[in-house]
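DOMAIN: structural biology
WANTED: fold as tokens
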Amino acid sequence: MDYSSFSDHDLISGFVNGKSRCFEVLMNRYKRKVYTYIYITVKDKDIAEDIFQDTFIKVINSLKEGKYLHDNKFAPWVMRIAHNLAIDHFRKLKQLQTVSNNNSDGTELFNNSKFSEETIEDKIISSQITDTIRLLIEKLPDEQKEIIILRHYVDMSFKEIAETTGVSINTALGRMRYAIINLRKLINEKDIIITAK
């Protein structure tokens, strides 16, 4: 039977009722988005794969135990699980660094890594983003970096971002606005010229 046209809700119902193929279709529907977000966040393929597996194990267990109560919001729910597991990873990493390194500047969620994607489509930047711009993004506050990742790397809507990060849509929009303002300031300060290609 072809389940590809089934809604998320129908696939979940089918899986809960013993049709494992339904979950396979459901996972295939969102695995690229979920994995991309995790990988860009943790910047390590092995760790990303571990968190990705943990995410869907948690999803399976939650569905089987009847803990999924988010009708028509499956994608944001899964992204939130992935988001929380990625944060847990950085908390553990930070604890280890605190023990081994008395560095007072604090390693936060996105400060450990550079972005590796080749392009970001942004409303204020229509050209391919340079390595310099990626480094400037690293200088943004964590909440603003996260918005850029979710919006431009994972291609999430602001509604999905709000649900994933547990904030209102207005807060998500505000963070993006400040991220763009701060990027503009950094570009001007560094006298960077961006040319369209």
The radius of gyration is 19 Å. The mean pLDDT is 78.
